[in-house]
Amino acid sequence: MALRKWHADGATAPLKGSDANRKPDFILLPSSIPDSSRELDWRDVIVFGEMKSKNTTDTLRKSYIEGAGKTALLLYAQDGRHSAPYLRMLGHYIVLTFFDRGGSLSTAAFDIHDYPDFFLRILLGISTAPIETIGFDETVFWDRDDKKKKVLVAWKGSSSEDDKGNPTVSLEQLIFISDTLHGRGTTVWAGSMKDPTSPTARRQIVVKDSWIDPLRKFTEGSMLAKLNDANVEGVPRLIHEQQVQGPHPSRAEMKVNMSMHFLRRLVSQSGGRQYQLHVLSRLLTEPLGIQIMAFSSLAQLLIAFLDYVQIHKDAIVKAKVLHRDISLLNLLLVIWDASRGDSHRLDFLDHLPPETREHLQAKIQEIPYRGFLADWGYAVPIDVPQTEAYTTPEPEGPSTSPSTPHHDAPPTSPISPPNTSTSVDNSVPVRIPVPSEGTDRVAYIALSELKDVHEIMLSMGRDPLPDRSQPSVDTNPLYRTGTWSWMATELVMAGAAKPIAHTAGHDLESLFYVLLGICVLFDEPHRPKPEAKLAECFDVYFNTFEPSLLKTTTIQSKMGWSYNIIQHISPYFRPLVPLLNVLRERIVLPMDFVDDSFRSDGPITHDEMSQALLQALCSLDDQFWVPHASPAHAKEPADYNSDHDVRSIASEPDGSSELSDASQSAHMPRILRPLPIRQSSGPGFSSSASSSSIYRRQLSNDADSESRALKRSRLTSDRHFNARSGPGPAATGGLSRRFAATAPLPRRKT
Fold first, then answer.
1. Which residues contact 680 (CB under 8 A, 6 or more apart)?
2. How far is CA 193 from CA 151, 152, 171, 659, in A?
3. pLDDT classification of 426: cutoffs 50, 70, 90
4. Each residue's pLDDT tens digit, 31-58
5. Which of 171, 227, 236, 710 could hold 285 in an S-S bridge, CB 3.0 to 4.6 Å?
6. How many angstroms separate the CA atoms of 700 and 414, rounded?
7. Is a pLDDT exceeding 50 seen at residue 130?
8. Among 456, 14, 405, residue whose Cα is nearest residue 246
């Protein structure tokens, strides 16, 4: 049994491991943390709690909001953790809340004097429970022999195994971890595994864990397989994709594909509460890239964007796949390596005069990094037959627009109880045992019928594609994807009455916004603008986390474009102003809103955008081809697993131990992780300048719902409080972040 200790020292001093100063009233720590240690760290916290003097509706609501923010900090500090319990002591009442990526569950407040046995059960349960039952992923563990963090994978034939014969991958660096409480909860590591072609060499790979929407028919791995099979260059190469297994909430000995529905189906869904349905996926790809923000020259930046346009075009032409999530963090750079079969294609030079083409080709060949388009998690095939999308019979009566969904159109995530006005319910594939055959089969179960005995089974990676007759939010026009800061204007304006089909033109518009955002984010390569300067332009137009047309209207306005945008472009980026003007005139200026609908000229094409970028590249002086030296802090260390930190909550695969004991050294190193992002508010919440009011309004409703549930139920389900993107799943976002942080830029995401 793992021993743990409760501490109150965190109430007087902010915990380390976060850029936000937060002081939980009491915390539960591993017993191996010395009592004399005053360097308390969020990365060591197993459970935390808050104390209030009395139990009122107001304290119940405020303590819920406070706990949600601190739980976001906790999950951001601990890679390999997906949920966390949270205790509230309100006078002589206690409330236990369980936060995860799909929402939250809470007990009703109960008097510890009236129910002392219940109180003791909660304390003992939390203090002694196996860590996988309180939110830790048992497939991410610390290998004491190799002194490395590792992750289990489920494919056969791996040459790296743990002591039980399970295939493993060594994790060497934490590259990205989501800072929002609810949603996909994406975590990305740089890792390595044995190279089958060499007895000594190791293969550098990327490991990505994320909670994906099972209503989506096509996973990121299946889209990468389609891209790889079509020989599309500049995209990740798929190694493996799987669903991650963990213990069933009520039957710990039973391993199931981890999903948000298990715990919620075990309790009464009182009051028709919503939650986000997600299942945990693990994706292994190569190669490892760095962010576009690490560009070293203006020429390299333009060449990378030429690559992005060409990759995006090839994905559509060759593989019939549309990306649908162009954003700053999804545009990467990778080292060109001929040994990997990289062709370093320069097709965009073909139409130039021979002399100019040869001159540019020689210069481009000297640049080691090329553009790399990552994160295909929202990509969809565009060759889907019409019958594969969700369709309904034409309603009787007045005709409607072809883009207007039928009133029976299926609901999209978040999941809510069946609506009597909705006769169609989305379905998810689940495993159904066939005892007579000794095997399993996959059947589709309506969301309203999903129970804790159902295990969701998705087609992953190179598995056969799922049943094409089933409805899917991939093709639902109410389902929009992207990141608010970079989302195309027409998609921002989409809603229940204005469904929009995502097109290639929307992605190219997003690409323009990212290029423009980089121009106002940096003074020159590796040198972001000061905070005060960022607050004048970048934070206003490119750091938003709610639907807004402010960026578009400002770019459209002649005065807004000149005064609010161009004026903030530093001298180093001035050679790109003619390019930005061309793209503005082609993409943004034709936009209009007439007769309650969005209007524009035909979308910009890939060839038009490539030609504009190439013209800007040809006009660059030689000084803009000279690379700027990167700062010393951006250089990668030689050993990611060196003893740069001292404590870690790490479990063995069997859950038998969570920390090394004193006899085996209490100082266990952590893998390298990115420095905290400079925040304008705590993780999981937006700044006051964006969607803070939305979050707090929804949180207040959730907390009030708890208060009303006191007389109804001993256990209730809290409504999720993540901001939504209209009626469909939320767009990526949730924290007002500044990319001008002093953290090493190349370490942020792959």
1. 687, 688, 689, 736, 738
2. 11, 11, 9, 24
3. confident
4. 877 766 567 888 889 999 999 999 999 9
5. 236
6. 19
7. yes
8. 456
